[in-house]
Structures are given as structure tokens and as C-alpha cells.
Amino acid sequence: MVARREWTRQQLLVAFALYCRLPFGRLHSRNPEIVQFAEAIGRTPSALAMKLSNIASLDPEITSTGRTGLTGASANDRAMWEEMHDDWERFAIESQQAIETVRTIEESNDEISQGRDDYPIGEDRAVEATVRIGQSFFRSAVMSAYDGRCCITALSMPSLLVASHIVPWRHDKANRLNPRNGLLLSALHDKAFDSGLLTINDDMTVRVSQNHYEVGDEYFRQAILSYQGQRIKLPEKFAPDPAFLSYHRERIFQG
After folding, report:
1. pTM score, two decimals?
2. What are phi and psi of 231, to 5 degrees?
3. Residue 232 burial (CB < 10 Å; 0-12/13-18/19+)?
4. What percent of the chain has pLDDT over 90?
């Protein structure tokens, strides 16, 4: 009997990074990105896809929908899941470093390559590089969770989509990179959300500020007010945290 080969920490970091950046429907062995990274870390595409399935079995947002075929996770998988949630910023940096280490091909996906910059020397530039990596990670995770569509309008043009923070970046350092602190919104609705013109209720429906019912023009009524009471498209993973939404309603929303 051949002994099972344990996954190294570097391999797990790559697998978890892929889980964060790929939509659930693409976590299969035929996905070219999985094929490429499997070769880079010395695993088969089937083994990497199975590992991603193991990770998915830890995600309550996926298992709560009754998905079948998800296998059990190992103790190391569970430990890294907890580690990721305990410190999203450290995980983003370490997983990026793991990807850079095993990279043997030129990435075609801009989400990660935006944060490379070859780790510039100097404290200020190092901080800037860390911020870029974090922003790239957050956008990738939120984009994949919502399958690349605005959760209000279903717009799917990437250049017009924003990974919007529910609790603003400057207000909560610990959750800056937490995908559950994110919504995928069109650029217009991101601005409306950030400025408090709209918010999301506990039942995941849109609420528009009554302060602007009368003063808004026809475009406002069509582009913003028409979504009043509409339920947002929920993500397959990393669902918005109710505590973050409550914060937005209480501190940001204009009422």
C-alpha cells in the first residue's frame, strides 16, 4: 500500500489561494488554471481539485446549500481555514508569496499579477506592495464569490465592477481583506453604497435612502431607486457578514 503524501504548507497556501479566487463552478480538474498550478506544486489536477473540494466542505455558505460530492477536510485543512479567517492580511501575503515561489508559467490572470512588483526594496515601497497585494486578493475573492456579477444589477463587465467594502477600509483594519466584508457592485452602486444612498437589509434586500426620494432625478429613479426592496444576488461563498451590514446601516446609511 502506497502511503499518502502529506500536503506541504506551501501547497496548501496555493490551494487556499485558488479557492479564494476561483468561482465554485470552476473548482474542477479540467480548469486550465488548476491544471497549471497542479503541475507547479507537484500534484495532479485531480488531487488539487479534490483538495479544493475538501476546502469547500469547510465553507458553511456552500455546505448549507446542500451541495453534494464534497469530501471531508483534513486537520491541516481545518487549521489553515481557521488561520485564514483569523488574519486575512497575513494569509493574503503568504499565499501570494507561495504562488510566486511555485510559479513556473506566466500568469494570464491579472488579479494576482497586479500585486507583484517584484517586492520593491524600501519600507515605504514594501508597504505599498503589501497594500496592492491585499487589494488584489480582496478583489479576486469578492469577484469569485459573486461569479463576476454585480449583486444588485447583475452587470458582468469587470472594468465596471468594484469589490466594495461594507465596513470602510479605514474603519476596520482586521477585516480589510475579509471577503465577507465585501459586496461586488457596479461602479455607480459602489459609490451610492459608500456614500450612504443605499444599504442592504438583514433579509438581503436593497434599501434606498428616503432622503433622496424627492430630490433625485429620473436617472436616479431608474438606476438607484428602482432597486428598492429587491433581493441582492447572494454569493456562493463568503456571504456578507450580518454584523458588517448592520454597521453600514447604523454608521454609513443616510436613513
Report:
1. 0.84
2. -80, 135
3. buried
4. 70
